Amino acid sequence: MTMFTAKSLARVLLWSSLSLVASGCQQAQSPESAQGSSEHFPKVSSQRLIRSTSYDTAQVFTGSIRAGNTTAIGFELAGKIKHLAVDSGNHVKQGDLLAELDTSLLEAEKRELQASLAQNRADKELAQSTLKRSLALKKQGYASAQQLDELKGQLSSLQAAEQRLRAAIDANALRIAKSTLVAPFDGVIAKRNNNLGEVVALGAPLFTLIQHNNPQAIVGVPVSLAQTLEDSQQLTLTVKETPYLATVAGIGAEVNLVTRTVPVRLTLPKDAKVINGELAYLHYNKTVDSAGFWVPISSLTDGLRGLWNLYVLVEQAPEQYLIERRDIEILYTRGDQAFIQGAVSEDERFVTQGLHKVVVGERVMLNTQVATR
Asked: Which pTM was predicted?
């Protein structure tokens, strides 16, 4: 009995010692375990919210290139085309010959008028000689006053006929001159409508001539913007991804009933490499006085009632943060950035990437390997 008691007591003391050792080991390891559990929190990339008092909106409006002059050119007379000096795509200078009409009938008319003028000149000389002789005879009493009046009337009639013939000759010369078509300005022949030998009607367009040294653009803008523009104001215009510094040449006074915009006419540099009818894009920057924050679009998630959500980091302990969801409103986007307002404050941290890896209420740590701002 005494031996059994001693063995039992020794066994109890052994188990007690082992329990104390195990408890001490667990207490010694508890700080390390706590540290290990903290290290298993997800790491997120973040930025600080920086307040801005305003933001710039980059607006783009579409228009088209219009030449300073796009003219349908034709003869002022009807006639048969005798000569075509240019064709579609040809560059011409002001005064260059474009086409000619057949002037055979006009030349015949000219010769007829010249012959009539020569006959009139002869008749007038005869009348002047007869009147001179009659005046001499009247002094001698051999001619009556009535004869003198008739001769003077005949001479006046011949003088009037001479003026009429000279006017007809001038009109004939003008018609011959207008049978030659010349370029009214420097430009490019965009289209030829008739062929050699065809008879064209009065005023029918033979060519379409586009002025190439005075490029312009017509762009429709909202009424609110048109009211802020001024003549000679310079704006940026892009054609085929090439930017040009354009000048406001005129602002329309009527709203387009279809687009509800006001046409603005802008002049481009004379050396601008543009083609009539090309699309042109007017870039206009406007500053909006409204406080908010710029954040990456990737940091936003869909919310309720048209709002968006931003995941904000609230510090709970050193290097430990709690994720909170804040409702925000997007005022403007530019590229991959959004300007927001809402239930956020300056200097608060927010999650910028990996939103699908975290949930609201989760504890996280900062990813110090990613630069923050």
From this structure: 0.61
